[in-house]
Amino acid sequence: MSDSKQQAEEFKALVEAKIKRLVSDFAEGKISREQFHLLYARYNSRLAITDHALLSGNPDAVQIAQTGPPTMVIKDATMGKVVGILIYHNMSSKTLETLGDFNLPFSLLEPILDDFTLRMVTRQLAAPRMEKIGKTHWVLFNAGQFVTVVTLFINEPSQMQIRELDRLLHDFEQANHPELIRPQINVDKLAYPFMAFIKKKFGKSS
Fold first, then answer.
1. How far apart are CA 119 and CA 126, in angstroms?
2. What backbone torsions phi and psi does residue 52 show, to the nearest 5 degrees?
3. Residue 195, helix vs strand vs coil
4. Contact 116, 143 (CB under 8 A)
5. Is 58 left (phi over 0), alpha (psi -120 to 50) or beta?
6. How far apart are CA 65 and CA 83, in angstroms?
7. Using CA atoms, how far apart are residues 136 and 43, in angstroms rounded to an integer?
8. Which of 67, 84, 104, 199 has the fewest CB atoms found within 10 Å of its own CB?
9. pTM here?
10. pLDDT of amino acid 70
C-alpha cells in the first residue's frame, strides 16, 4: 500500500470514529441539534473527500479534507451560552429575580408563562420548552412547583444543559420552600443555585 493511500485510510478511520462519537454525544444530550447538524456536515464532507482520494489516488484530497478550523473551536462557538435568567413566581404572576443580562421584553414571555401557570394550577406536567428568538438567541422555559425559570441563551442549549437547569430549579425550590409557601415572598431571603450555572458558563469565579 502506498503512503498516500495508507494516509487516506487512516484519516477515513479517524473521521468515521468522530462521526460515531458525534452520534453518541447527541444521543446522550451532550450537544445541541444545531451543533450536531453543523459537525455532521463537516465530518461527512471530509469523509466524501477522503473516499474520493482513495478512488482517484489523489493525495492532495486528504490534505484538503484535513484543513479548516479545529472541531473544538466550532463546538465552542456554537455551544449554548447563558446570557441571563428570569425567575417567575406563577401564583403571584410576578418576577422574583433576574440574574445576568436578561433583556427580553416581558410581552414575549407572557403567553408561555400564562400557559405554564394554568398547567400548574390544573396539576398538568409542563415539560421544558424552547423558543428561538432572532438568528442566534434561544429562550428556555423550565417549570417547577412554584416558579418558572426562563433562561436566555446565545445558541441552542443541549439536552444536558436543559437537564442541568431542571436540577437547579429543583434545588432552588427545595432550598427556598419555607419562603416560597408564604403569601408574601421576601426575595432577600432566597438563595440562587443558578448563580453557579451563570458563573460556570461565563467562566467567572467569585
1. 6
2. -65, -40
3. helix
4. yes
5. beta
6. 35
7. 23
8. 67
9. 0.73
10. 65
Write the pLDDT tens digit of every residue in 107-124: 999 999 998 888 877 878
Beta bridge partners of 94: 89
Q: Is the pLDDT of residue 12 over 50?
A: yes
Cβ neighbours of 36 (radius 10 Å): 19
Question: Which secondary-structure segment (H or E) carries 54?
Answer: helix 33-56
Backbone φ and ψ for 138, nearest 5 degrees, come out as: -130, 145
The residue count for the chain = 206
For 111-180, the three-class secondary structure string (H helix, E strand, C coil) is HHHHHHHHHHHCCCCCCCEEEEECCCEEEEEEECCCEEEEEEEECCCCHHHHHHHHHHHHHHHHHCHHHH
Which helix (H) or strand (E) covers residue 88, if one does? strand 81-89
Q: State which amino acid sits at residue 173.
A: E
Q: Which of 49, 86, 94 is nearest to 68 (CA)?
A: 49
Class of domain 81-202: alpha beta
Side-chain half-sphere exposure of 27, counting CA atoms within 13 A: 6
